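Inverse folding, one chain.
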């Protein structure tokens, strides 16, 4: 028999470090927590836009102003053309031009190219292979530029979407909010893919990956809005039945306002989630080894 005194002492597990606890907490974050953190970071970025030298000087400012001007002129021209021509003025066989002027394609391409100088700075000066602290510092310097691009995308996507709806005679508040929200989410996924592409092959690969993410976000948004629409119609139908003296027009207006509110709420959630994921992807890339980042 083995002497109990000769048996090795049991090895006690090491207490978790602060980094381990923080990593576990980050892994346990729900999508709602991620979206909330993204909205906070996006709010800080928007606040810093007017006073950030990274946005207001050099190539970044010039490229962003040029891109915004091009999109503004093109979208306003479409609005005027369709406004004078009426619903019959849309050419269904427009081919490549019609595709390039799509509310997602035009802003994504133009703003993606405008953002290339900013991403080039990130690639050359802040990664890969830097520490997490350096990556976070670089992100805080870069994020106001990305926020400015997002603001330009929101305006241009809304104008292009309004022009498209005007062309088919379906321009109204609910349709504009619904279509512009969906187009904006897809556009914001594609813009970074255009900005970070090194060549045509990598550009196609990045756009395809971004398209998959945008498709998943789009499907999730459609399902959520479908469920919300059914719930809204049921609630307002119930209210109309309980209050027969309530004007039907008031019920219709209330239902429409509720659906618009739900659309905007899901849009805000997706904006926060997309922003947070953009930050996570950059920090993970910047802190990786150069060989891993290249692959």
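Residues assigned per position:
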């Amino acid at each position: 028999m083995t002497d109990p005194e000769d048996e090795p002492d049991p090895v006690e597990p090491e207490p978790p470090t602060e980094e381990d606890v923080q990593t576990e907490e980050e892994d346990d974050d729900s999508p709602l927590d991620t979206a909330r953190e993204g909205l906070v970071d996006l709010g800080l970025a928007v606040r810093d836009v007017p006073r950030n030298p990274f946005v207001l000087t050099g190539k970044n400012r010039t490229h962003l102003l040029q891109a915004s001007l091009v999109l503004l002129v093109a979208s306003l021209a479409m609005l005027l053309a369709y406004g004078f021509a009426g619903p019959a003025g849309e050419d269904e066989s427009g081919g490549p031009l019609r595709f390039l002027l799509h509310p997602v394609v035009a802003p994504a391409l133009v703003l993606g190219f405008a953002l290339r100088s900013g991403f080039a700075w990130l690639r050359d000066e802040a990664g890969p292979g830097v520490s997490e602290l350096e990556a976070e510092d670089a992100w805080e310097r870069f994020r106001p530029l990305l926020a400015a691009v997002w603001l330009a995308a929101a305006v241009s996507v809304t104008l292009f979407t309004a022009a498209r709806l005007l062309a088919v005679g379906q321009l109204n508040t609910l349709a504009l909010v619904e279509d512009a929200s969906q187009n904006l989410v897809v556009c914001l996924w594609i813009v970074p893919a255009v900005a970070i592409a090194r060549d045509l092959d990598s550009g196609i690969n990045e756009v395809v990956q971004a398209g998959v993410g945008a498709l998943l976000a789009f499907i999730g948004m459609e399902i959520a809005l479908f469920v919300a629409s059914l719930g809204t119609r049921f609630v307002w139908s119930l209210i109309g039945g309980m209050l027969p003296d309530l004007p039907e027009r008031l019920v219709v207006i209330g239902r429409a306002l509720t659906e618009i509110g739900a659309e905007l709420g899901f849009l805000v959630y997706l904006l926060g989630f997309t922003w947070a994921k953009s930050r996570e992807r950059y920090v993970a890339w910047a802190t990786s080894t150069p060989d891993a980042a290249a692959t």
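The chain has a mean pLDDT of 76. Residues 200-242 form the longest helix (43 residues).
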